[in-house]
Each structure stands twice: as structure tokens, then as C-alpha cells.
Amino acid sequence: MNEYIRPHRDSAALLTIDTQNDFTLAGAPAEIEGTGEAVPQMQRLVELFRTRQAPLVHVVRLYEADGSNVDRCRRADIEAGAAIVRPGTDGAELVAELKPSTDMRLDADRLLNGGFQEIGPNEHVMYKPRWSAFHRTDLTDFLDTRSVDTIVVCGCNFPNCPRTTIYEASERDYRIVFVPDATSGVYERGVRELEDIGVAIKETEDVVDWMTE
Questions:
Q1: pLDDT for 111-147, tens place per residue?
Q2: Where is the Isochorismatase-like domain positioned along the sequence (predicted)?
Q3: Residue 15, strand partner residues
């Protein structure tokens, strides 16, 4: 890779996207196929960044019961009573494998107000109101103040939130690593299109080797 797109391991942050119980657990109300199977790889990445105390951000969705903050494509279902990632519920929580401790819970009020919830050394949770983690959030400032120029992206569900986050990161000139085996919903053409805009494609094992070499 050329010097303009080559990822920098010493200034990299990991983003996990929407890996919450309601999207992940078998039989959950909004289960996304393949997310549960990708969790062990996400867990390896989380533990890697946690051990290095490198910036780690868990990006989540929270749907108010009245549907007021929900995407238009899902608003009717929420208004009709669907309880999906509802603030304060177990379904909205990060899956247990990604939590730093079993008793950690989301501070929904802080997150919905745009704050970053610190849950460990250099580890935070943030809320995004739409597909991209950069849309109407302070993520750019958060990363820039930590001198992050490279983001590593994994999570749920590639066609929507991870992919949109990656494209908006590219628009902001971040160097980007995408981890297909730690992400649900991945398809070949989408990965090729990421490569075409300079995204580095690395499997979990490749990321571990790269970060520890």
C-alpha cells in the first residue's frame, strides 16, 4: 500500500459496530444473521486493543420507545411496540463477550445526549443516531484529540452501519482497516469496492500479527 493509505498501528483505534444483544443473540427480536458467529473474532480484537490500551470505541444504537430517534425504515415497527435496543433494557447492552466486566451497563442518558461513556482505560461507548458512526456525533473530535489517524472496523451488519462508517471515515481522510471475519453480512463485491477506495482488508489473525509484530 502506498504512503497515503497505509494504516498506522501505533495511531489506530478499534470501532465495534452495533454488537448488541438484540442484534446478535439467537432468537433476539432483531437478530442479524452471522453476527453471533463473528463475535469470537471481535472479542479477539477487543482484547488486543484493550491489552495495548489503544483507543477502543463500541458504537451502539438506542431506539426510544416512541420512535422519535429511529430511522424512517424502522420507525413504524418501533411505534407499533417493537422493543429493539430500547434504552435501559438487556437487549440494548453490548454482548457479554465484548464487555470489560459482567456488571458494566450502558448509561443510556449520557449516550443519547451525545456523551462518550468511559468503561475502561482508553475504552468508551458512543451512540450513533443513524448508519454512520460519524453522522451527527463527536467521533471525529474524539479520535483527533487522541491523535488517531487509522481506524479498524468490525461488527454488525456490513451492508449498513460498518460500510457507511467506513465510507464516511474515508471522506475524513482516515486510514482504514476492515476485518471481514469479525463482521456480519460481508459480501465479496462490497469488499472489492472498499479495496478500490484504499481500505486495507485484514482478517482477525492478520490484525493481531500486524499490531504485535
A1: 999 999 999 999 999 999 999 999 999 999 999 999 9
A2: 12-102, 118-189
A3: 57, 153
Distance CA 74, CA 33 (A): 18
Q: Which three-class secondary structure state does DSSP give residue 105?
A: coil
Question: ∠ CA 163-39-108 to the nearest 5 degrees?
Answer: 75
3 part of a folded domain: no
Q: Please list, in sequence order, all residues whose beta carbon lies within 8 angstroms of the beta carbon of residue 119, skipping any fewer than 6 positions away.
A: 58, 99, 100, 104, 125
Q: Which of 103, 142, 147, 150 is closest to 124 using CA atoms? A: 142
* Pair 13, 150: CB distance under 8 Å: yes
Q: How far is CA 25 from the centre of its chain?
A: 17
Could you tell me if residue 1 is inside a domain? no
Torsion of CA 192, 164, 67, 78, to 10 degrees: 10
The tally of domains found in the chain comes to 1
Evaluate whether 191 touches 164 at the Cβ level (below 8 Å).
no
Domain assignment present for 162: yes
| Average pLDDT of span 3-21 | 98
48 lies in some domain: yes
CA distance 18 to 15: 10
CATH code of the domain in which 93 resides? 3.40.50.850
**Full-model pTM:** 0.98
pLDDT of residue 146: 98
The Cα-based distances of 41 to 48, 132, 155, 167, 179 in angstroms read 11, 22, 10, 22, 9
Instruction: Report the SS3 class of residue 57.
Output: strand
